[in-house]
Amino acid sequence: MSQTLEVKVLEASKRLLGEEHPATLRSMNHLANTYWNQGQWSDAEELEVKVFEARKRLLGEDHPNTLLSMSNLAYVFEHQARYSEAAALRQAVQEIKDKTIPTLQISSSPPPLPLKPPLLLMIEKMKLSSLDPVLEDVD
């Protein structure tokens, strides 16, 4: 049932938006995931390759969606016992992540907290300004 609906959504998306529209590529990815769950690895591979190649061309190799597609394709290869191809893809993903995602600088002390949250400061200011007429009478 789910697969039939996803195929129809994908066909409509291709027809209305085009083969390489982000929504069409997402639909392809969803259908590939359904194929995974059903053990239809060659069908999943066909779609994952298309999504990966399109995203690589359109978004670049180091875009998060391209990296996701590479990981998905590696997953499919692993389930097809194509371990060396899967390992090569996973290695490429890790190298790109290492290159593009800066390492976190861990500090021994946490960043300083604001003295008072902005909303609390605003409320206090409103309260104080409402006291202005009272304070004028005291003077």
From TrEMBL:
InterPro entries: NLR-like, TPR-like_helical_dom_sf. It comes from the Eukaryota. SUPFAM superfamilies: TPR-like. This is Kinesin light chain. It comes from Favolaschia claudopus. The lineage of its organism: Eukaryota, Fungi, Dikarya, Basidiomycota, Agaricomycotina.
